[in-house]
Design a protein that fits this description.
The chain is 37% helix and 23% strand. With 590 residues, it is of the alpha+beta class. A hairpin with a 6-residue loop joins strand 21 and strand 22. The protein is elongated, with a radius of gyration of 38 Å.
């Protein structure tokens, strides 16, 4: 009995615990309820409070970058890519996430070719994120990507870069793209002229510096438009090769070759020397090499201008094909004596012989017959003294003095007639000849054929600028140019094809007058003469051969030999035979 009574007896400690247990349970329930309510209210913070909290949280783990959308691709007329997009990379790190900065610094130093100690100091800084190297190549970026798989805390940011798969090909036409993502834009050529179309929208984007954060959704921004050029890559390669060969053979210090379709103004190829590689534009020490001499450098054209003088006078009716004059070897105009290049008299000659024998006196006589008002009006109609407005960045207008200018003198009327004292660009000169080849109708030179904006395709239409001369005048002058090639320019003749052309040999002016034993030699020709499909300008600066007939005409012939194959232009007899049978010769150019 005593043992049972003892078992039913509760100790004071147990009794106290039994009395307090409900209180403890109630307190725990209250605390749990408060915590749950706090968590609930945290999930449903007012927007302004939540935003402030998020901003304070992200301040140490985000940064803002300028994101550029993909730049448009540039193609030649046959779809061959001339300018595409690739990436370089910016390498960074979050020091507070690097567990072993010494080992990581060693590995990064080997990949980036940087000082290991310098990188170590960056990885042990108190900053939330540091930039270690930018830009690095795509190959280095891939090596860093492999390192990211084993090392936490390294970041890799893509940086857009323009890549030109053809290297130096068409560098002056294309231009280049420079700058970082904050100012990524095109310079010179079509990259500069069509910057707005090629470049897409640029915007700010906040990115996380925490490597294991989930990638943020970046909305697709407007992509730049693609460009399809009138350029033919094969023809461009041909003339660049021939220009380099001509420079080597003649010792010329520079030169330009242009190939144009006279029917629509399409520039099929345009090359100048010296040139550059747009992939490594930053290695160029002389920035003048970026200028395109075909449109931005002027020169005195010399005797090729006689074609324009003759065509102008024929158009105005001042002379006829049967017109003659007595060539005494010199003529005095405005107080200066003008002489023929060979310093000889030719006696009674007709209009065609002015071109065949390239007579300075004949051109000056014709200019006098026209008078200064009509002469300069016709030069302006042919486009001299004004830009062609080709769609390339950096075009110059040339220099054409008129009687309305203070520095004009009467002697300029005579010298301008044979290409002295007037400055033109190569593009202006070939555009004037293309007008004669196109039955007297001058077409707007163009480089871009299509602009492709997503599913929208905008095709540029050939634009006629003006009729400089009638078809009859153009035909007469063309016949004279064919006679010029056949009778005096064996170096420019192409068996099987009638070639219309003219040479130019211009002295080089300087502040002290014209230089001795230095010239700009040129040749401009088109074919087939009766139905021209292509016009070619060849210009060489300071060649050792001096004369255009000696150094420039052979270059034209070599180019023409390849062009008729590339452009599938049959010999004249074959083409005329097909046409006489009612057939159509297929033309491969637009």
């Amino acid at each position: 009995m005593q043992r049972q009574a003892a078992n039913n007896t509760t100790s004071p400690q147990q009794e106290m615990l039994r009395q307090r247990l409900p209180v403890v349970i109630v307190v725990l329930l209250i605390i749990s309820t408060i915590l749950i309510l706090r968590l609930f209210t945290f999930q449903w913070l007012p927007p302004e409070v939540a935003r402030d909290f998020q901003l304070r949280r992200d301040a140490n783990y985000q940064r803002t970058i300028r994101v550029t959308s993909e730049r448009g691709i540039i193609y030649d007329r046959n779809g061959e890519p001339l300018a595409v997009n690739t990436f370089q990379y910016g390498i960074g790190a979050s020091p507070n996430l690097i567990s072993n900065p010494r080992d990581v610094a060693t590995q990064l130093a080997a990949l980036l070719n940087r000082s290991e100690l310098e990188i170590y100091h960056q990885l042990t800084s108190e900053a939330s994120w540091v930039s270690i190297a930018r830009p690095v190549s795509a190959e280095v970026g891939q090596e860093v990507a492999r390192l990211q798989q084993t090392v936490r805390g390294i970041t890799r940011e893509p940086i857009p870069r323009r890549f030109y798969p053809q290297g130096t090909l068409a560098a002056h036409i294309l231009g280049f793209v420079a700058g970082d993502p904050q100012d990524y834009r095109g310079y010179n050529g079509v990259e500069g002229y069509y910057q707005q179309q090629l470049a897409g929208r640029v915007r700010n984007q906040d990115v996380s510096t925490i490597p294991f954060d989930l990638p943020q959704d970046i909305p697709e921004s407007d992509r730049g438009s693609d460009l399809v050029l009138t350029l033919d890559r094969d023809i461009q390669f041909l003339i660049e090769t021939e220009l380099q060969l001509a420079i080597t053979q003649t010792g010329a210090t520079g030169g330009t070759i242009i190939v144009m379709d006279p029917r629509n103004g399409d520039i099929l190829a345009m090359a100048s020397y010296p040139s550059f590689d747009p992939n490594t534009y930053f290695e160029v020490t002389d920035e003048t090499v970026f200028r395109n001499p075909a449109i931005s450098e002027v020169y005195e054209p010399g005797s090729v201008m006689k074609v324009v003088t003759v065509a102008s006078a024929l158009e105005l009716g001042v002379i006829t094909p049967d017109w003659t004059y007595n060539d005494q070897g010199f003529i005095d105009i405005g107080g200066i004596r003008i002489e023929n290049a060979e310093r000889r008299a030719y006696g009674v000659v007709d209009t065609a012989q002015v071109l065949v024998n390239s007579l300075n006196v004949g051109a000056a006589t014709i200019a006098q017959e026209m008078g200064w008002e009509d002469f300069y009006r016709m030069l302006a109609r042919f486009g001299f003294g004004q830009p062609t407005r080709v769609d390339l960045q950096g075009e110059e207008a040339g220099i054409l003095k008129t009687p309305y200018d203070d520095d004009w003198s009467e002697s300029d009327l005579g010298t301008n007639s044979f290409g002295q004292g007037i400055s033109v660009t190569p593009l202006q000169m070939i555009t004037a000849f293309a007008a004669i080849a196109n039955d007297g109708l001058m077409m707007q030179p163009r480089v871009v054929y299509q602009i492709v904006d997503g599913s929208d395709v905008y095709t540029t239409q050939p634009t006629a600028l003006t009729r400089v001369v009638s078809k009859r005048t153009a035909d007469i002058v063309t016949e004279m140019m064919v006679r010029t090639v056949n009778e005096s320019l064996e170096n420019a003749q192409l068996p099987g094809y009638a070639v219309a052309g003219k040479t130019g040999t211009a002295e080089i002016s300087s502040p002290l007058g014209y230089e001795r034993d230095a010239s700009i030699a040129s040749f401009i020709g088109f074919l087939p003469a009766d139905a021209p499909q292509v016009v070619v300008l060849v210009k060489l600066d300071r060649p050792t051969g001096y004369w255009g007939s000696v150094v420039a005409a052979p270059v034209f012939r070599r180019i023409a030999e390849r062009l008729v194959i590339l452009m599938e232009i049959p010999p004249d007899d074959v083409r005329l035979a097909i046409q006489s049978q009612g057939g159509v010769v297929e033309e491969v150019n637009r």
